[in-house]
Amino acid sequence: MTTGTAGSVSDKNPAQKREIFGWAMYDIANQAYTTIIISFVYSAFFVSYIVPEDSVWRDSYWSIAIIGSTLMAMVLSPIVGQMIDQGVSKKYLLAWSTVICAVFTCGLYWVGPGDIWWGIGIILITNTAWMLGEAIMSAFLPELASRKNMGLVSGLGWGLGYLGGFFSMVLVLIVIITADPVSQEGLYIQQHQWAMIAISIYFIVMAIPTFIMVKHRPRPVPLLADRKPWYHSLNFRAHMREQPVLFRFFAAFVFYMAGVQTVIKFIGIYSSGELGLTQADLVAVFLATQFSALAGAIGFGFLERRIGAKPVLLTVIGIWLVAIFGMYSIHALSAALPMSTRDIFLVIALLAGMGIGSIQASSRSLVGLLATPDRDGSAFGLWGTFNRVAMLLAATFGILADLVTRQNALLLVIGFFILGAALLLRVPLKQNN
Does the domain at residues 15-217 carry the CATH identifier 1.20.1250.20? Predict the structure, then answer.
């Protein structure tokens, strides 16, 4: 049974800076997929050009791909985590998830207008592989960082990942996709297809330092009699008995992360539909959040060395609450202050960006600190599962927004953060955690 200080992390950092850099490079590599394919470029292209113009359903097709891959990752993450605990190489599993994601992303090149189900099928595979890779890569953290440096190393990786998102956006939107969507529609579609090839190559090339620099540290393989079947990984009640403090943290994590995921998934819809921001405004918001997220992840990583992960998480949740309250009151603030709605929203975006990087990095480091010895694979597999549960909770915002308006639905996001903070306060962690 774990305690607040139990974990598989040594007090002395076993990794050199070169190896930590190699590990962080994977964040730079894999961020290109989620930034371009899932969040900003291909999702909008799919709805506008792959789905026929006369289709009754549009966003729903994309939702099928995202929800389907999320459910698949929820089930597969604990299974992959148990495989790690039973001696399967993390580098081997990470290589498979990387290759599957990159190779099938290339397949989007052949998805043209009307090929809805081919596109959905490829997204199901690639997004599932990407989410599994995220959990596998995170499971290296206890091997690379000491207890003192856990938050800093996690923040470094997450912060550099936002640079990967920025570089991939420049590559795609400035270098590759240059055609006018109205007068050069055919070329515009073709350039999007070529962008899928480019992102696949980018992913593979930028991930190479990870596989060269990060060492494989074999762990003892359990005797055949001690090995557990794959379905044991889905026995959450048994996991809860074995790692009770970790699960108390997950109970808090799933709610405050639902608040974060709501902002990530709906910020574009809210800013354009509710506030009337232009495409140029949205680009400014994207740039602001990318660099503030980088600063937040690394800056709070240094702070975590001094005050611990739990105080940092509570501080960051406080920043999120200020940002969401500001968004909820944005029209009143615009009337009271000598600032336009756009400028106020940009300030809020900076706060939210700082919170996005730091809250995810600190959460990841806390999982590493709380994982019991020889169970870090399962711990990060379960972390991946609860991350996906948070995504599903975040989807309720869209339904509520249709019922009570987007502005009032922000109260749900505030509730997520408050509940997450209240549950986090009940997690018994010592100061050095």
Answer: yes
For CATH 1.20.1250.20, list the domain ranges present in the chain. 15-217, 238-428
Exposed/middle/buried for 56, CB within 10 Å: 0-12, 13-18, 19+? exposed
The whole-model pTM stands at 0.85
Q: Are 131 and 384 in contact (CB under 8 A)?
A: yes
- pLDDT per residue of the chain (433 residues) written in tens, 0 to 9: 333 444 445 555 567 889 999 999 999 999 999 989 988 789 888 988 999 988 888 778 888 898 899 999 999 999 999 889 888 999 999 999 999 999 999 999 999 999 999 999 999 999 999 999 999 999 999 889 888 888 889 999 888 888 998 899 899 988 999 999 889 999 999 999 999 999 999 999 999 999 999 998 887 666 554 566 656 667 778 888 888 999 999 999 999 999 998 887 777 667 766 777 776 777 777 777 888 888 999 999 999 888 888 899 999 999 999 999 998 998 889 888 888 888 888 888 888 888 888 998 999 989 988 887 777 888 899 999 999 999 889 888 877 887 888 888 899 999 999 999 999 999 987 644 4
CATH 3.80.30.20 at 238-428, yes or no:
no
Nearest-5° Cα angle at 44, 42 to 48: 115
What token pair was written down for 73? 């990752």
Helix H, strand E, coil C: the string for the chain is: CCCCCCCCCCCCCCCCHHHHHHHHHHHHHHHHHHHHHHHHCHHHHHHHHHCCCCCCCCHHHHHHHHHHHHHHHHHHHHHHHHHHHCCCCHHHHHHHHHHHHHHHHHHHHHCCCCCHHHHHHHHHHHHHHHHHHHHHHHCCHHHHCCCCCHHHHHHHHHHHHHHHHHHHHHHHHHHHCCCCCCCCHHHHHHHHHHHHHHHHHHHHHHHHHHHHHCCCCCCCCCCHHHCCCHHHHHCHHHHHHHCHHHHHHHHHHHHHHHHHHHHHHHHHHHHHHCCCCCHHHHHHHHHHHHHHHHHHHHHHHHHHHHHCHHHHHHHHHHHHHHHHHHHHCHHHHHHHCCCCHHHHHHHHHHHHHHHHHHHHHHHHHHHHHHCCCCCHHHHHHHHHHHHHHHHHHHCHHHHHHHHHCHHHHHHHHHHHHHHHHHHHHCCCCCCCC
